[in-house]
Amino acid sequence: LLKLEESQAAAAVGQIELARIWSGVLGHYGIGAGQILVTLQDTEERRRYLNARSTISKLLEWRAVPVINENDTVATNEIRYGDNDRLAARVATMTSADLLILLSDIDGLYTAPPSANPNAKLIPVVESVTADIEAMAGAAESELSRGGMRTKIEAAKIATSAGTHMLIASGKIEHPLQAIADGGPCTWFLTPANPVTARKRWIAGSLEPKGTLTIDAGAVAALRAGKSLLPAGVIRVEGQFARGDAVVVRGPDTHEIGRGLIAYDAEDADRIKGRSSSDAAQILGISGRAEMIHRDDLVVGGPRGTDSAK
């Protein structure tokens, strides 16, 4: 086994080569590639999570494929994923992906490790990751992989809990994605929710609000019509919060309208309240988001609300 510093040095060399290969292959089709190296903290700390998500979104907007890997050059054993399966699941949920595909050395989840049990049967669909499903996963069988079916099951739990379907299929065949589309063998892990509803349920019930925004009647009507909250509609800003924190949104009568993830910290939000989005950019000296809270980050309640967190 390599020492930690030897593994990190090898990763530094390999990351450049991997990026070069992806850039060359995608460039042949007129598609760009952008390398993103993440650590565990980048998906667990809210501000870094938002920065990573914004970078991925911008790359896709530029028609560049994000090539994402764990930053093994700085990650230590104590603060690392250690496998790409769970990392892929966290990135999929970060971007509200509909589907995560994991390519493996076998074509799905079997009732037992097929290399050890010739009677093992492929499970085509898993509707819920139960203890029985977890028991079917064996350990990693490849020396080239830190993962295995166990980490793929863990990835399925992460993905499906956030509203992302997951699929395991063989990556040892040519054109594996086409094979999946043609009905080839694989295992689907289904989720009962979609990424938007799962995310909004999380916003509504799982986060402790750090502050309050009071908005005018026009903004209340806009939110209940499914619009985003713009700075112009905000009357008052209360509390100490950072970008990405959950805040309560109240109408002029102080009744709660909803909850959402704020795009600005408390100081900047207070400076741009009541101003147009173009004015906000001039006041702050940077071109931030036009919305104080984007509609995808907002759960609206009340009798005429458009969202439900139940």
UniProtKB/TrEMBL annotation:
PROSITE patterns reported in the protein's UniProt record: GLUTAMATE_5_KINASE, PUA
Domain of life: Bacteria
The UniProt record lists the keyword Cell wall biogenesis/degradation: no
Keyword Transferase applies: yes
Alphabetically ordered keywords of this record: Amino-acid biosynthesis, ATP-binding, Cytoplasm, Kinase, Nucleotide-binding, Proline biosynthesis, Transferase
Pfam families from the UniProt entry: AA_kinase (PF00696), PUA (PF01472)
One cellular component (GO) term of this entry: cytosol
Enzyme Commission number, as recorded: 2.7.2.11
Residue ranges constituting the PUA domain according to the UniProt record: 211-293
GO MF annotation terms: ATP binding; glutamate 5-kinase activity; RNA binding
BP term (GO), one: amino acid biosynthetic process
NCBIfam families xrefs: proB (TIGR01027)
Protein name in the entry: Glutamate 5-kinase
